[in-house]
Amino acid sequence: MSKKYSLLNYSLFLTISFLHLFPSLVQGNMLNKLSEYVEEKMQSDKIPGVAVAIVEDSKIVFVKGFGYRDLENKLPVTPETLFHIGSNTKSMTALIVASLIDEGKADWDTPIIQYYSDFALEDSKATELVTFRHLLSMRAGIPESAEDDLLEVTMAKDIFGIIENAEILGNPGDIFEYSNLSSAAAGYIAAILSGTSLDALYEGYIQLIKQKVLNPIGMKTACVRASEAEKNPNYGKSYELVQGKLEEAETEDIDEDPLAPSGSLKASASEMALYLTTLINQGMAPNGNSVISTENVTETWKTYLEDYGMGFEKQHYNNIEIIGHEGSFDNYLSVFGFSTELNMGYFIITNCENTSNDLITEGPKYIVDLYISDREVSKGDVDGSETIDLKDIILVLQVSSGKKISLNMNADVNQDGRIGIIEAIFGIKEIAGF
């Protein structure tokens, strides 16, 4: 039995099964909704500036700046605005180690003392056990409270003394404790492995992240040094809400930050889109560079205690596994994540931490919901009950062709819902002159 669907005056009612023929329209509608969502959150929560990037199927489909990077001078946030990404840097430090493993210079599970003989924890037995895997997955037993002693530290090498004097929480691998010292140690030991002297660890780490991650991916303006970021005319200021008023925040970012490998990178949304694409491609950058082997980039995603991997953490939303991280520093707040199942990723960053928690927490869920609904529509089957108004599609064809299109025709939809639909679509395109 066939069913009749009328095409009349720019309105066509067809089943959702053919929407894959117009993916750009579906995607455009989704991204418009995302823009509206961000703008509404900015207004309601008093967020001065936001940047968002979306990648899908190895392509950057959306990069946009919202609001201001400089409120006083009304300078807008652009896709190229540099913001501080904070602890999202940890994932890149893990990729540096992965690169050294690709080169045969290191191994995830070799004791650190074989790479740096002076490395020590409070307990000598624990010292003999701790590995890169432990340091990067926050399971080395180093307490977060040990960072309180950083006030007296002026050089990167000094963190090793703090680590040695800290009372460890347990044997490596047994306890999760989020520790900036832990990931910083991993980054600096990677620099030592690459031939850097103890007195030049900060500079050595900068060279490593450029050589192993930033340059191969094409992240040309991303930088670690605070002074370098400040010289960029498109560097975004950060703000805080004080008694209902947005005020420029005092910066704590400094050159020679001893915790640089755990959270000192500044990058733009455009650059983070390149980074996301590289991750989704399992180590292959959009420019074709093989940055990290598939084996070792995916190794960093494996999780242990508290769903934390090596510089990455996993979350689940609507049965979708999301791999990513959050970053918070100097009143900037950010999050990135990607799904190998949906083959997409997102990055959101703001320049006012104390008004942005809801956007950073709920924004990724909103994006995933959009993609789930998009995939359901694109893959939907005909059941005779679901229809969609295609006025917008006809209007797009009208604008594209420069012709006024008035349709009055019938499409026979067979029981499988396919042949008649395709004929109707090609009928529209023929009338439009395509």
Nearest-integer average pLDDT: 85
Strand order of the largest sheet: 5-4-3-13-12-11-10
Uncertain parts:
1-23, 379-392, 394-401, 405-434
Structural class: alpha+beta
Let me know the number of strands.
15
> Helix tally?
14
Query: Nearest-angstrom radius of gyration?
Result: 25 Å
Instruction: Note the gap between the termini.
Output: 31 Å
Dominant shape: globular
CATH superfamily of the largest domain: DD-peptidase/beta-lactamase superfamily
CATH architecture of the largest domain: 3-Layer(aba) Sandwich
The proportion of residues in beta strands is: 15-25%
* Run of helices and strands: EEHEEEEHHHHHHHEEHEHHEEEEHEHEH
For the largest beta-sheet, the strand count, sense and barrel status come to:
7 strands, antiparallel
Question: What's the CATH first level of the largest domain?
Answer: Alpha Beta
CATH topology of the largest domain: Beta-lactamase
Helix content range: 25-40%
Q: Can you give a write-up of this model?
A:
Helices cover 37% and strands 19% of the residues. It is α+β, with helices and mostly antiparallel strands. The protein has two domains: 123 residues, no CATH class; 306 residues, 3-Layer(aba) Sandwich (Beta-lactamase), CATH 3.40.710.10. A seven-stranded antiparallel β-sheet has the order 5-4-3-13-12-11-10, sandwiched between helices. Strands 14-2-1-15 form a four-stranded antiparallel β-sheet. A two-stranded antiparallel sheet has the order 6-9. Helix 2 runs parallel beside helix 6, helix 2 crosses helix 7 and helix 6 packs across helix 7. The longest helix has 26 residues. It is globular and about 55 Å long. The N terminus and C terminus are likely disordered.
